[in-house]
Amino acid sequence: MPEGLVIKAYGGFCFVWMEGKVEKCTLRGKLRTRGRVLAGDEVVVRSLSGGRGVVEEVKPRRSEMVRPPVANADQALVVVSFREPSPALNLLDRILVHCEAAGIRIVICVNKLDLAAPGAENEAWIETYRDAGYPTLVTSAVTGEGVAALREALARRITVVAGPSGSGKSSLINAVQPGLNLRTGEISPKLQRGRHVTRHVELLALEGGGWVADAPGFSVLRLEGIDRAELAGLFPEFGRHTDGCRFADCVHYREPDCAVRRAVAGGAVARFRYAHYLGFLREILAREGKNKL
Ligand SMILES: Nc1nc2c(ncn2[C@@H]2O[C@H](COP(=O)(O)OP(=O)(O)OP(=O)(O)O)[C@@H](O)[C@H]2O)c(=O)[nH]1
Ligand SMILES: [Zn+2]
């Protein structure tokens, strides 16, 4: 039976890409439970007449994100901008932690280089992310700078696009491939307060191979499912130091002989990243209902 890629799934149907054609499929009984078939799933299809089919089987997933619901995402592209809006690094770190927990690769993109001061592409905060190990591109959807590198980063992969409203996600995807319209920009700023995130995810095809997930739902990230012991490991540059802490269960706050705090004091870990870590830790402890910091 033929295999294909689910580009959209909702309401008991899914749309499966098979050798360039899209077939609208129903789901075999046991697959009808919500979440059993997601955009990004590789499936086995029994074709019926008239371009219809039935999804018989879902192949094992390489990765799975709950919010937004996407299977087999290879990476997240997290877009922030130099200005308008200026980068909200707390939100950036929250998205990074969320993607790290989901186990997917991350590419950071700092957009609107045309609005930034000369030399901005090497500002200290950007170097912090590069040093942590994140590939970090700088782009302008207006001048086209960095767009070729972004196109290369997206090729042959399934990419979930995230980032604050107005950072230029839709504009960048459109610069990579004119006509490919991410629908995140369709709601006017005035309506944003009442904005719902119930729309389904859709994978958009890139010409050179690869897919971009038009994925609403990054706006409310509550660090669900992450526990205190796991959090520091989701900041890759902290992980290089945790072995040096005296206590194996150190949360790197007030414990004596903490190697992470030493790294902060010595400048090896950026203060702003550590401050965000503490904020997230507080949030997790409050949720766990245990002792506060
Ligand atoms: N100067 C400049 N403006 C840009 C750039 N990229 C996007 N913009 C502008 O920034 C505004 C927001 O861009 P969008 O592409 O809609 O941003 P978005 O991230 O998709 O926003 P949401 O849909 O709200 O999530 C638009 O007015 C764009 O024209 C850029 O590189 N430079
Ligand atoms: Zn520690």
Instruction: Give the CATH topology of the largest domain.
Output: Rossmann fold
Q: What is the H/E order?
A: EEEEEEEEHEHEHEHEEHHHH
Structural class of the helices, strands and pairings?
A: alpha/beta
Mean pLDDT: 90
Number of beta strands: 13
> What is the H level of CATH, i.e. the homologous superfamily of the largest domain?
P-loop containing nucleotide triphosphate hydrolases
CATH class placement of the largest domain: Alpha Beta
Helix count equals: 8
**What ligands are attached or bound here?**
guanosine-5'-triphosphate, zinc ion
| Intertermini distance | 56 Å
Our estimate of the beta-strand percent is: 15-25%
